[in-house]
Amino acid sequence: MRIVVSGTHASGKSTLVSDFAIRHPEFVVLPDPFELVDEARDTPSAALFATQLRVSAARLHPDETPGHFVAERGPIDFLAYLLALDELSSAPGSRELVERSIEITQGAMQHVDLLVVLPLDEGAEIFVPPDEHLPLREAMNDVLLELVDDDEIVGANTIVVEIAGDRNQKLAALETLMPAHFRC
User: Fold this and answer.
1) Which of 71, 142, 150, 164 could form a disulfide with 30 if both were Cys (CB 3.0 to 4.6 A apart)?
2) Global pTM?
């Protein structure tokens, strides 16, 4: 089973992936691509999101990561960030970059069985400091929720599920989606 956990920053992805990995050591954990990119300390930019999109897409290919995995973020996250950045910017980004990012995302999502989306949830009790680019966080959330409903982006074979609630509720919801042989 190949799982991607998606959501805007500070939505509970790391916690859910970590909690899941503890209970399911048979799954390889693919960390947030933010941690794998040299420019990760830079301010949010189209170039940074495009780089993370490429990294997250490449690792979803079965030749790169065979077997079962749970990935924190997928290319759809970074496509949503690129589109949200465009929405918030007075100068739109490169249409060519967006079109190429859509193509990469479509191809990579063909290798995902389950896309778990964590929408912003006021009840989740996640503290978000003001320096976390709050307008971008909200815009990305809205764009992501639109993208996950698009079968041309996600693919017809990928199961998409939105999960909300506290940390235990999110883990329980994810585990109910697992085939019986993976359940604890």
Assistant:
1) 71
2) 0.92
